[in-house]
Design a protein that fits this description.
The chain has 158 residues and is mainly alpha-helical. It has one domain. Helix content is 84%, strand content 0%. It is built from five helices and no strands. Helix 2 runs antiparallel to helix 3 and helix 2 packs parallel to helix 5. The longest helix is centred in the middle third of the chain and has 37 residues. The protein starts with a helix and ends with a helix.
Amino acid sequence: MSYSSKRKIASIIVGVIVAIIYIIYALGGHSPALEDLKSWAIAILIFIGIGVGAVIVIQVIFHLVFAIGIAVKEREHDDKKVNRIIKSSMIEDEREKAISLKSAHVGYICAGIGFVIALVTLAFGMTSVAALHILFGTFAAGSLLEGIVSVYYYEKGV
C-alpha cells in the first residue's frame, strides 16, 4: 500500500472518529436545545476545529512513524539514501494530482447535494437546526467519500 493511501486512511479514521463523537454529543443530554441555532452553530464550529486539529496531529505523527519505519528498514544505508527514499515517496506527481481532482469532485457533489437537501428541508418547514445538521453531515460524508475514492484510485490506478 502506498504512502498516499496510508495517509488518506489515517485521515478517514480521524474523520469517522470525530463524526461519531459529534453524533454522541448531539444525541446526548449535554447538547443544546433543539431550537438554539446559535449554540448548535458554535458546537459545530468547535467540532470542525477539533477535526482539523486532529487531522494535523495525526498527519504529523503518521509522517514521523513513516520516516522512522523507512530509516529502520534501510538502516544499512547512509542518511542520504534514506532521505532520498522518504522524499521520493512524498512527491506529488501528475497521477496524484489527477486522483486528487477526481476525488475532490466526488466530495463536492456530496456537499452540493447536502446543500440542496438542507434548502429543501427549510422550504418544507423543518427547523434551521435540522438544516444545519444536514449540512454538517453531508459535508463530513463528502470529505469521507473523497478519502475513500482517493484510496480506491491509489490502489486501482488511474
